Amino acid sequence: MASTIVGMPFDQVKIQIQTNQSKSIKESVFFCYRNYGFLGFFRGLSVPFSFQGFIVGIVFYVGGGKIRLRGRFFYLREFGKFWKFGKF
């Protein structure tokens, strides 16, 4: 998430260069600051944040399921060893 916050101003300047046919980075920075203010560099930040939140949720859900499944598998495997050798 920190990389999104740090990289967003650079993306906004890049977009300004592409859409306004600016001649330089300096001109694009001044255009963005003059027209939108300091917060103009962070326009559209909610979309990447919501997308990252969704992806992180999926990763933790799948990762937690793998850990639970692996724990059950190892437990059953160990249980099978004990049962096989007559320790129960």
Shape: rod-shaped
Nearest-angstrom radius of gyration? 26 Å
Unreliable stretches: none
Based on helices, strands and strand pairing, what is the structural class? mainly alpha
Overall pLDDT metric: 76
Overall helicity? over 70%
Q: Would you list the SSEs in sequence order as H and E? A: HHH
How can the largest sheet be summarized?
none
Number of helices, counting only DSSP H or I runs of 4 residues or more = 3
Instruction: State the separation between the terminal residues, measured CA to CA.
Output: 51 Å
Could you describe the 3D structure shown?
There is one protein chain. By secondary structure, the protein is mainly alpha-helical. 80% of the residues lie in helices and 0% in strands. It contains three helices and no strands. The protein has helices at residues 2-20, 25-36, 46-84. It starts with a helix and ends with a helix. The model has no long low-confidence stretch (mean pLDDT 76).
How would you briefly describe this protein structure?
With 88 residues, the protein is mainly alpha-helical.
Fold blueprint:
Blueprint: H1 2-20, H2 25-36, H3 46-84
Q: What attributes does this structure have?
A:
88 residues; 80% helix; mainly alpha; single chain
